[in-house]
Each structure stands twice: as C-alpha cells, then as structure tokens.
Amino acid sequence: MIKIYRLIFVLVFPMLCFSQKDELLNSHTIPSALRENANAVVRWDDSYIEVKATNKMAHTNKRIVTILNSSGNSKVDAFLGYDKGVSIKKMEARIYNAHGKEIKRIKRNDFEDVSAVDGGTLYSDSRVKYLKYTPTDYPYTVLFETEVEYSYTAYIRRWMPIEGFSTSTEYSRYAFRYDPSNELNKSETNFEEFGVVNQSKPGEIHYEANNLKAIVYEAYSPNLKDITPYAMLNLKNFSYEGYVGNSNDWEGLGKWMHEQLLIGRTQVSEKTKNEIMNLVAGLDHPIDKAKVVYQYVQNNTRYISVQEGIGGIQPIDALKVDEVKYGDCKGLTNYTKALLDLVGVESYYTRVYASPNNLVDINKDFASFLGQSNHVILNLPYEGTNIWLECTSQTSPFGYNANFTDDRNVFVIRPDGGEIVRTKVYTAEENLLDTKANIVLTEEGDIEAKINLNSYGTQYGYHEGIQNRTLKDQTLHYKDYWNYISNVDILLMKYSNDKDMIRFTEDIELTAKKYASKTGDRLLLSPNFFNVLSKVPTRYRDRKLPFQIARGYHDTDEYVISIPENFEIEALQNDVLIENKFGKYSYSITKNDDHTLMFKRSFILNKGDYTKEDYENFRNFYLEVVKQDQSRIILIKKS
After folding, report:
1. Kindly report the CA angle at 174 between 170 and 176, in degrees rounded to 5?
2. What are the residue ranges of helices labelled H in 53-118?
3. CB of 417 closer than 8 Å to CB of 252
4. How far apart are CA 214 and CA 38, in angstroms?
5. Cα–Cα distances in Å, from 311 out to 131, 147, 237, 589?
6. Are 534 and 484 in contact (CB under 8 A)?
7. Are the C-beta atoms of 328 and 123 separated by less than 8 Å?
8. Which of 110, 216, 363, 432 is most buried per CB count within 10 Å?
9. For 426, which DSSP code?
10. CATH 2.60.40.3140 in the chain, residues?
11. Which residues pair with 201 in a beta bridge?
C-alpha cells in the first residue's frame, strides 16, 4: 500500500503542481484576503515523508512562497542542514518576478555551503546549504524543491502551516507514511479552529490546510504554535546512528539515552583529574565543590554554536572537550558532569527549549525531546530542590538560569530513566530592581545625584552586562536609560557583581541642567527622577489574541531630595495606590523637613496568561502608572 501511494504521489503531485504553475508563481493571483496583514504568502507547501526502514527515512518537499516586502525575506526558508546522517539528494530553487516570469535558477551546487559551526573542528561534518539572494524588486516568488534522506528515524519533521506572524498560507499539505505495526505518537493542536482536514489512518498521516489568513503580532502575544495548528509525530520504535530506541514514555526514553548515548563519555585526562581534586581539597559540602568545578569550566573552556537539528544529539566525549577546551552545549554540559562525577557531586544531563522571550515547554504528554528542545543544561538535585547550571556561559553565576531556561518543563536524563521537571520560577519579588538616590536641586532647576541600583533575578541579567562594555558605551547606556532627562553628564560609574548573592550593584553620579522647569518664582519638579515608566502597551480597537506576561518583576525606588534653602513646598501630590490582578503600584512624596523630601515608589507586574478581553484593563493600568510617574510637584521661592 505504501509503495502504491508513493507511486501515486510521484505521478500525480507534479501534474497538480505544474498545472497550477502559472497561477501559483504569479503574485497577482494571490487572494486579497491572504494579502491582508501579510509580509509573505506561502502559496504551496507540500511535504511527503516516508519511513523506508528502521534506519532510513526520506523527505520530499515542494514549497512556493511569495515575498511581498522586505519584512518577509526571512520566510524564503531556502536552506538545508546536513551531516553524516543527512544526505541531500535534490536541492533547487527558482525565483520569479511579480508576473511569474523566471529570473533566476539556483541548482544544488550553486547554493552557498558553509560550516554550521561557529569555530572549532569537532563538528566539521555539520554544514548548511542556503540560498543567497538579494531581491531588487517586490513582490517576488521562490520555488524551492528538496529531497533529503535520513539514516535515522528518531526525529520527524513537525507540521506548522502558519509559519509565523504576518505570514498567510494558501495551501499546505503534510503526508507521512510508516509501517502501522510500528506504533506512532501524535500531538495535534488547534486543528478544528482553523479548519484543518485530517484524513489520517493507520500507517498514513495526512493533513491539509487552506487559506489561512495572516495573524498580526500583538503586544504580549503568546507563542504562535500554541494558538495555531501544530502537529508533532514520532515513532515509538526508532533508530539513531545505529542505536534502536523506544519512546513509549519519558522514563524509558531517558534510560535509553543514558545507556546508548551518554554512558562511557565522561572520562577526562589524568592532568585534569589532578587539577580538579586539588581545587576541591578540603571542601566537604557538595555545593561548594560544584561551585569550584563550575568556575573551572567557565575559566578553561569556550562555547561554540552548532545549528540545532544537525550535529547529532550525542555529546562529544568529555576527553575530547578536555583536550581542545571548547564544545557546544551538549559537549560542555557533559564535560561539566564528568568533572562533578570526579568530586562525587550528583548531576544529570538535561534537554530544554531555551528562549529569552517566550517560555517554551516540553510537552509532557508527547515523549520525544527532538524538536521540543534546542539546548542542554545540567541538573543538580540538592535537598529536595533543583539547581540548574548553564554550562555554555563564561560569566553566569552558579545556579542562575533566568531569562533563558527558567520556568519551563525540561527533560532530565538519569541512569534509571527520564523525567519531566520544571525549572526555577523567578517570582516578581525575586526579579527586583531597587533604586536609591540622593539628589540635590538648585534654584535654577539643575540637579546633582548619587544613584545606587541593585538588581536581582531576571533584572540582574538585564543589568550586569554593562560592566563589560567600553567606557564610552557605558556612558551612552545611562544617557539612553534616562533618556527623558536632558543635558545629563555622567561623572562616575562603579560596579559590583556579587555572584554568590546574584546581585549586581551600580553606583552612578551625574548632573543634569534644567531638570526642573522654572516659571517665575516657581519650580515644577517631577520627583520620580530615575524610574519613569513612559511606554504604554499598544492600543487595539479589536484585539484578536490573548496575551501573556511571561515574567513578573518588582521595582522599588526611594529618593532623598534636597531642595534649595530659599524655596518651600507649595503643593505635594497625594499618595497613590493602584492594585489589580495585573500588579500593584504605590507612590508617595512626603516632607522630611523644610529642605528635604522623601519620594517612594513601588511597581509590581504579575506574570500570567490573560484573555483578549482583559487587555484594555491591562493597558488602562499602565496608563495610570505612566500618568502618576510623570506627575509633578511645585516649589515656590520664599517671599
């Protein structure tokens, strides 16, 4: 049956495609509804994947995409990664102008062919072929045809017919053929809402989608794959580089990976063994030992990037990393584990989907980490909690994983099996920026200020990098950070990075001319000098999407303001308190004595998932905070 279908596909697909060639390649035939809000239109995307044997799989794809403007160029997607397990049989692209006239043809050997690795020779077999094309006019259309053969069946390409925001799809088909005696795991989401046609049956997966309109990104939009059609497949019995595995559940998958891909790869040289043992001599506490090992890895290795999807899922042997002193996330994590093994500290290799913006979970109900993870970190279980080590960073504090791998489901691999575990959730209270300042105001409205900022949690990650910039860039950073203050002159910048407390301290001294507005005998002064919220979430007359606040945070501010001796307070603002499900804001300005004011401010933003109907209230909350942050008090000259 599979062979018959394959024959039908091979014979009928070209006739269908080329009978519609003129229509699909001519941008003027794009339905007007698909042009709306779109930077690119996928006219036709047809994937056929066939499992030919336990260790052999073929993927044929024909894709036609029209790029409407420069913002759509990234949707050409004319590239393929390959290595010893991926063989490119066919790769060809043709480019057409707006009227469907062919203007360029790129054959397989004409594609750019580069290493997929940013430095290093350990991954020399990992390469990428890609189309290098600079358009001279818009719209233009790209026809991209590929045939690829894989020597493994451990990963099956996902189906996501809406490929990105501001990208519409005229037609997308996904076909997968397999031996029905080999059971299949499936995850299918958001099919019904988008009218996906599902004609699947045992041994045959068949999805089709038509006329999917472009979805416009809206502020705080959730991950696109969570709100559009998305399908994941994997065979319960699969092969990878000669190893046969089973993915009935996470426990069994973890046991397979440990026994087949990880075990026996943690040897290091005698020289390194001696170095490590000398470094931990006299230390008894496992965390103290782990910190020493982590620092050693940071000081003695460097990270190289390997494109996800090639380069394999097995880490480079720790002995090799020990020799060359570099590796990708897999290699460096395995190397760190090898050193921790030496000193008797328990640790586990962990797969995760790392992302700085969206919090992307591994689906705990779909036992396959391939396609659900793009990075490797190290898990240290300790007294009922979990510590997470980012082994690719030469600067991260021990146990710090904010803004990259925090608050998501990950796959921890242990000798007795695997398990889905959630990484650390950084609460709003932990993501603290505490700003204190002493400010002297002159009767001309000028200010002199000494400012102390302490950042923690996710906010630590946003601030600590400033210390590594040039002096000029540091100065420009603060002028931009306080861009609402004119005529700023930065006099002093001093930093302290406490990696044990995970606290970054900035001490800044500055002056600014005419900060307060002078009107006759009065000075109009904004007492919120150094943490003004000025940006309001975008307004939507008819918001389409729910919204998500991925990470909460807390800002506290306290300023002592010295006013000129010959001025007195004419009017102060009343205290403000705003509290709702989105957060909490408080503001106060009080008189310490005749010449000193105390300003206090607190703003908490709560993480959470909210409906589109909540968005207007959320925006109104921000509007009120912005209004209060920009409010002013009046000082008057004594008569």
Report:
1. 170
2. none
3. yes
4. 6
5. 21, 20, 22, 59
6. yes
7. yes
8. 432
9. -
10. 2-240
11. 204
> Is domain 2-240 classified as CATH 2.60.40.3140?
yes
User: Which regions of the chain carry the CATH code 3.10.620.30?
Assistant: 249-422
Give the pLDDT score at 4. Answer: 44
Asked whether 438 and 425 are in contact (CB, 8 A), the reply is no
Cα distance between residue 639 and residue 636, in whole Å: 9
Q: What is the DSSP string of 80-96?
A: EEE-TTEEEEEEEEEEE
Tell whether the model's pLDDT for residue 34 goes beyond 70.
yes
- Give the tens place of pLDDT for each residue, 227-252: 999 999 999 999 988 889 888 899 99
Summarised one tens digit per residue, pLDDT across range 308-341 is 665 678 899 999 999 999 999 999 999 999 999 9
Q: Per residue in 527-550, is it b (16+ CB within 10 Å) or e — as a string?
A: bbbbbbbeeebeeeeebebbbbbb
Render 291-356 in DSSP notation, one character per residue. Answer: HHHHHHHHHH-EE--B-TTSS-SSPPPHHHHHHH-EE-HHHHHHHHHHHHHHTT---EEEEE---S
The ranges of the chain annotated as CATH 2.60.120.1130 are 433-637
Query: How far lies 543's CA from each of 213, 269, 337, 540, 638, in Å?
Result: 16, 60, 48, 5, 53
Q: Rounded CA gap, 420 and 414, in Å?
A: 11
CATH 3.40.50.300 assigned to 249-422: no
Structure tokens at 48: 């056929």
Q: For the domain 433-637, what is the CATH code?
A: 2.60.120.1130
CA distances in angstroms from 51 to 2, 238, 621, listed in the order given: 10, 10, 54
Cβ pair 380, 290 in contact under 8 A? yes
Closest to 265 in 3D by CA, of 185, 174, 327, 352: 327
